[in-house]
Amino acid sequence: MSSLLYTVLTIAALLLLVVGLITSIRLVKQQKGEQDHGVSPTVKANPRTLNPVFLSYIFVFTIVVMIIWFFRLYYKYPF
């Protein structure tokens, strides 16, 4: 594997970690003194699509498919 590929994947992983950290810090500051007051009507209407775990599964699946597609094109391997 070329060093360029390692560099790109490392930068993508670091970018993902930084974005996750910043998002987590913002949520902690926002919810510091907040108490739960029930479920919002938007979440009640769409319980699956607004679930962060479900969205994470979709995101990771998309990334894996993109990586497989990249290897297929880069190495011309017939999948």
UniProtKB/TrEMBL annotation:
Q: Which UniProt keywords apply?
A: Membrane, Transmembrane, Transmembrane helix
- Bilayer-crossing residues are 54-75
Task: State what protein this is by name.
Answer: Short-chain dehydrogenase
Q: Which organism is it from?
A: Ammoniphilus oxalaticus
